[in-house]
Amino acid sequence: MRLCFLVEEHYRHDGMPLEVISQLVAWGHRVDVLRPGGSLLRMSEEVNAGSHDAWVLKTVSGGPGLTLLEAAAAVGLTTVNDARSIRGVRDKALAAAIGRSRGLPMPTTYAAAVPELLAEIPESEFPLVVKPADGSAGRGVCLVPSPDRLAAMTGQLAGQGMLVAQPYVPNSGVDLKVYCVGGELYATERCSPLHPDHAVRERQVALPAEVAATVARVGAVYGLDLYGVDVLLGPDGPVVVDVNDFPSFRQVPQAAARVARAVLELARTGRGSGPDVFPAAALVPEQQPGAAV
């Protein structure tokens, strides 16, 4: 097979996806690598129908790679993940709106173009978790305990673009990160960015059935094939607090080989470029996430 990987500058030396690319090449496949953030792109020639079996994007929020992936999808090429699905989770405000409307257990989410507008959130919703709508890897995530503290943090929050704010979900200080690759789910524990002093050894852990069902629904709702979900185990069950397309897959056994096989299967079947990104079949009665609301 011939594949095209779009690798943003942030990931050009990263094991994921470089190890996946190396694995595919070792298996005899041809892999072309484009660096959207470090190369002049001749858009009229880079994207040609039938030039590759699939295009794969490892992106950062707001990176130029998504534009190129969308161009590939527009001419009928298979993309991993679906370009519209990536757009649907990269904007955290949009992701929350989609997820809540489909009944996923996600917190109430407020969005504000400037931090001063967050002052309109009722005091009863505090403490709040505030983060950039286009953030990733825990960047800019902060816990705001009170309206007074929010007012003092206005300068710190300025200049980050659209912000989202969600009521804090009481939890143990341990984040559960669940990865989906090749239809299989793998759960890992890690330290929460909100509790950096909490000693947590990152490791693979058993996946509770309730969490597995929730994560599978996440993939169906957003139309993702390779993805990760950040889950908090709150007082009333699992709460989805973030969704990532093509994550790091840390602690997944033989991650490079598993991801490589999944990419090949998606390229063969043409999944990842279907017309129904948010399929009606994924609609379920809305469920509120209890203490997160």
TrEMBL record:
InterPro entries noted in UniProt: ATP-grasp, ATP-grasp_RimK-type, ATP_grasp_subdomain_1
PROSITE patterns with a match to the protein in the record: ATP_GRASP
Pfam families, A to Z: RimK (PF08443)
UniProt superkingdom: Bacteria
Domain ATP-grasp: 96-272
Keywords: ATP-binding, Nucleotide-binding
Annotated PANTHER family: BETA-CITRYLGLUTAMATE SYNTHASE B-RELATED (PTHR21621:SF0), RIBOSOMAL PROTEIN S6 MODIFICATION PROTEIN (PTHR21621)
Protein name from the UniProt record: ATP-grasp domain-containing protein
Origin species: Streptomyces melanogenes
Source taxonomy: Bacteria, Bacillati, Actinomycetota, Actinomycetes, Kitasatosporales
